[in-house]
C-alpha cells in the first residue's frame, strides 16, 4: 500500500501526493523559514514527523472516500497524536536529559498543534501531553503508523540525527535566555513559549504551502533573494525629485539622511522619534531598504495601527519602489476560521503567509501573529524572522499587552535576527517597565536640535476642558462657533457614536454656511474612507489656495474618530480633540496647519464631554486621567504652545504608574485575577500537581490564545455593499463549493479586503437579528445588506439612526 497525504483532480485527472513527498517538502519548507534563526534543524524535525499519524490504511481509506465524494466527517481520523506519542516514547524517558526532554516537548507541541493549539497544562491542571500519551493506541493505529512511516517515508537514524541537532539548538537557546534574564525562570519560560510558537509556525507554513501547491497543481515561486540594490536605487532616484526649498522640507530631508546613515547599524531594537509631519514614512522606507541591503534581510514589514493610515502609506511606498505588485497589503481576515480539529481547512490555504518582500499590515495583525490561537495567525510568525519590522505609531499599543509586546520584541531581536523600529512622535518609555524592552545601547536613529524642533511648532494648544465637561448640545454650539471663525475645522471624537451624533447636528450648521462636511470612522470600509478622504483633501487644497490668495470664505468640516489623527497627510486651520491621551493630542496637532498652509499659528482646542460613554475603551479612561495631570504639569513649567518632549515623557511616567497592574494582560479565572503573561511563562497557578512534575512545558497555549484579544471584544470582518463590494458579494453568493477554484477565490478575496468593516460579536448578533447580516460559504464570510450601509456613516446602527 502506497501511503498518501492528499488526492486531488487536475484537468480531469486524478493526482496523488505520497506521504513521503509531503513530509519531506514540509520539513524542507519549515527549515528554510528558520534558516537564519539557529532553529532550522528543530523545524526540519517537526516538519518531517508532523503527519506520522497518516501512515495507516485507515487514513488512506478516509482520503479515498472523501475523493470519491462519499460523506466523511472531517478530522475523524486522528493523525496528530501519533507524532507526540512517538517523540515521548523515544526521547522523553528516565535516561533523557532535561534539554532532550525540553526539545521533545517543543517539537511534540508543534506536531500536536499543527491543526490547532492544545494546552500543555490547562487552567484545571490537566496535562495535554498525558492526555495524548494515554489515548487508546489501537484507535490511532499507532503501531501501524510508526512501522509504515519508517518503512516508506523516513529512516529512524535520520530522525535521531535531527533530534540531536535540535537538542543542540534548544540548549544554546536556553543558555542564552538564562543569561539574558539573569536566571529568571519566569522570563526564560516566556521566551520558551515564543520559541514553541515559532517552531509551530514554521511547520504550519511548510504544511500549508506544500498542500496548496499540490491541491492547485501550481508551485509557489521560490523565495528568491530580493534585489534590494535595485529597490534602494529606485527609491533614491524618486527621493531626489522632492522639493527641499522650504525650511520644513530641508529638515525632513535631514531626518531622511540621518535614517539612511543609521542603516549600517546591526540588527537591534531602535527608535525613530520625530515630530508629526517629519516625513517618517519615506525616511523609514529609505532606512529599511538600505538596512535590508546591508544585512540581506528577507523582507520589510510595516505595522500600522489605523487602516486609513495603512491605505495612505501603501500608496506612498508603492510610489517609491520599482516592483509595486510585490508590496502586500494585509489587514483583513475576510475568511473566518473554524476549528476543524485534525483536518486541514481548505479555506486556510487562502490565508496569506506573508512571503512578499514588503508587507504593510495592522498592529492588530502583528499582535495576533504573536499571541492569538488561530493557526492562520501563528503561520505568519515565521515571516517576522530575518526581517525589518517597522512598528509605526507604537504609542497606539493597547495598555494590557505592553509587557507581552516587550518580551516578544526582545525574542524577535535576540533569536529571530529581526530588526525592530519603534516609530512615534510620542515614544513611550517601554524600557522603564518591570518587563522592559531591550533597546540598543544607542537606540535613537535621529537627533534634532532645538531650532529644528521649533520649526515643527505650527499650532497652539488651547485647554478648554472643565471639571464638568460639555453635553452634546454645548459641544455642537462650541464647534459651530469655531466653524464661523475658521475656514476649516477637524473634530476628533473618542467613539463612533459620538462622531455620528455630532456630525448630524453640525450638518445643519454647514448647510447654513454653504460649507462641506464629512464624517469618517471605521464603520466605513477602507475604499469608502479612501474615496471620501480624497474628496476631503481636494476640498482642503482648494480652500488653502483660496486662503493664500486672500480669500478663505469657504468652509470645510470633518467629524471623525481617531481614524484620522495619526499619520494622515491632511491639514486644517483648527482642530477640536475630545479629551484622550497626550499621545492622541500630539498626533492631532499634526493635522493642524501641517505645513503652515494657513499663514498664522493654527489652533488646537481640547474639550471634555460630560457623561462620556466609553464602554469597553478602558485605555482611553486611563489616558484621560494622565492627560489632566500633564495639563497641570504644563501650567507649572509655563508651557503654553505645543506639547514638549518633557511633557510627553512625564505623561508616560504617569500612565505606566496608573496602569502598573494592567500591562501584563489581566484576566479573570474562577473569580480570581490572573495574568496572560503568567500563563505563557510557567503557569504556576495551574501546574502544581504531581502529575505535571515530569514535564517542562506547562503553558496553556490554546486557552491563552483564545483569551487574547487586542481589543476587549472579539471582532470579525464583514463584506459590505459599497461600490464594487456589491459585485463581490454577488460573486461569492453564486460560488458553490463544488465550483470552488482556489485561484479564483483568492483573487476575489484580495479585492474584498477594501470592502470590509470590523464589528464586535454583539454587533454581529444585533445585525443578524435585524436580518441585515448573512453568512455564506459555510458561514466563512459574512455579508451586509444594502439597507444597512449608509453613504455618510458606512455600516449603520439602525436603532441609533432611527433616533
UniProtKB/TrEMBL annotation:
Residues 12-209 form the HD Cas3-type domain. GO terms for molecular function: ATP binding; helicase activity; hydrolase activity; metal ion binding; nuclease activity; nucleic acid binding. Keywords: Antiviral defense, ATP-binding, Helicase, Hydrolase, Metal-binding, Nuclease, Nucleotide-binding. Residues 471-641 form the Helicase C-terminal domain. Residues 261-445 form the Helicase ATP-binding domain. GO terms for biological process: defense response to virus. In the N-terminal section; belongs to the CRISPR-associated nuclease Cas3-HD family. In the central section; belongs to the CRISPR-associated helicase Cas3 family. PANTHER family: RNA HELICASE. This is Helicase Cas3. The lineage of its organism: Bacteria, Bacillati, Bacillota, Clostridia, Lachnospirales.
